[in-house]
Specification:
This protein has 108 residues and is an all-beta fold. The protein contains no helices and eleven strands. It has a single domain (3-107), classed as Rieske Iron-sulfur Protein. The strands form three sheets. The chain has a four-stranded antiparallel β-sheet with strand order 2-3-4-9, with no helix packed on it. The protein starts with a strand and ends with a strand. GO terms for molecular function: 2 iron, 2 sulfur cluster binding; metal ion binding. Its cofactor is [2Fe-2S] cluster. InterPro entries: Rieske_2Fe-2S (IPR017941), Rieske_2Fe-2S_sf (IPR036922).
Length: 108
């Protein structure tokens, strides 16, 4: 695994997120309180596009069925909102992030 340059710090304002493609993977990078975090962009329930979801604080909600993940850790906060069904949903894979000048690098 090595660090790959994915974008510029200026591309992700504080309190927002953006999807990037790195080595065939979709990675979601978020800026929370001026610190950058990276997790897998596809929901572990039904592959919903998390970058199209809603970010509140450090929690992103999948637009497909409402699963919630902490973007700082990748941990599942709550599963999909499907009545009468309780599903086992996995955490998101988390990636190490570092900054080099104006660039965001992710270890993939």
């Amino acid at each position: 695994m090595e660090f790959m340059k994915v974008g510029k710090v200026s591309e992700i304002k504080e309190g927002s997120m953006k999807k990037y493609y790195i080595n065939g993977k979709e990675i979601l990078i978020s800026n929370i309180g001026g610190k950058y975090y990276a997790i897998n962009n596809k929901c572990t329930h039904r592959n919903g596009d998390l970058s199209s979801g809603k970010l509140e604080g450090s929690v992103v909600t999948c637009p497909k069925h409402g699963s919630k993940f902490d973007v700082t850790t990748g941990k599942l906060i709550s599963g999909p909102k499907i009545p009468l069904i309780k599903l086992k949903i996995n955490d998101e894979e988390k990636y190490e992030v570092r900054l080099e000048g104006e660039y965001i690098l992710v270890k993939v």
